[in-house]
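Let us practice reading a record.
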Amino acid sequence: MRIMIVGAGMVGYHLSEKLSGEGQEVVLIDQDDNKLRRIERDLNVLPVLGSGASARVLEEAGIDKTDLFIAVTDSDEVNLISCIISKQYNVKTRIARVRNEDFYAQGTAQAERALGIDLLISPDLAITEEIMRLITMSQAFEVAEFARGRIELLGYNAQAGQPCVGKSLQDLRDLQGIYDFVIVAISRNNKTIIPRGKDRIEVGDKVYLVMRKKDVPPVENLLFNAASHAPKNAFIVGGGTIGYLVARQMEQKKINVRLVEQNSKRCEFLAEQLEHTVVLNSNGLEAHDLLDEGIDQADLVISVTNSDTTNILSSLLAKHHGAKKCITHITNPGFIPMLGKLGIDVPLSPRQVAANMILRFVRGGGKIVNITTLQGSDAEVIEMKIPNNDKFADLPLKYLEFPMGAIIGAIMRGGEIIIPTGDTLLQPNDNLVVFFTKDALQAVENLFGE
């Protein structure tokens, strides 16, 4: 497939890295020559200098031979114009990132139809959806859904005193009883481990599990002596688009919300639009103001200002005073690996969230049904279909020559969800949820090649 990406920022780079790494032919267009030269050294892409809103530049880049067009510059106008131009060359699929919320006033589907674009991505809407997915799982720092929500991949921090700490995977298999789960990975000291039976869970590990959604409560209790629940009291620091959208959806869930915003005019707008949220005119770093409002009793603090510094400091302040969990908006994903050491529970990069939505759309419909890149990790999870090939019929999983760096977490067969063991028999047309490190995707795809 020939893919043209307009915009060599963080989203464009992330997409170029993923797609070129899968053997796709990637053309990358940007107006910054130095940025293109750096990326050309790192990745196997064809760099083109110029504006994506120029028909001449697109023609020189080979738009007439392009299957997929993705516009992810920081300019809505460039993204939309370049997509509209690409339509004249019969490009099959067009994707644009758009920040202006006016495009979504009548709904995303209507905006896509009106503009003739297959997928519109709003970073603000994407991050709002991710936050709302995370709030119901108060004990987890990572949440991903598969099989239309019936399978969960969840990430947990292993802490002293929890039942799973010090136990090997074999010990935990003996404990699990009727509740099936697979520990698909352990992240330790920024290294991802695909564990085997003798590997033990240590304090400080990030533990990733796959399980049926209905089994989450008993498995959480069994392994972590904990129970996830929706927050009763939440603070939102930052009353921009994300803060406003999250507060509005939390109101619908009957969550008590206090929203902190520094701009007094914006506070007036928020107070008018939100029915039950308490709007506070403050910068989110005034400890006395926040303590007076009960931030020490908060179940959840969400920091979503436009400043990484404010988001990090307000989260640390909240945790210091007793807030149970923090979700922190981080524009620069380079900060993410060190934030866990500072005590920040869930760092969210809008660029990575937006890139993941694009990758899911691009890869959907074929052998790969769904894919999720985990925040702050070199690992991914895919939902993929086994080809209709007799060599997979009644094949025990333990005899499958599965690549190093990958593990099957669940199998979907018709309406049945199977959490597998080595004796589980595969069948053609099964859907698999596979966890893998970044170097193993090609080997997994090759294994299940037609």
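A brief commentary: The longest helix spans residues 350-363.
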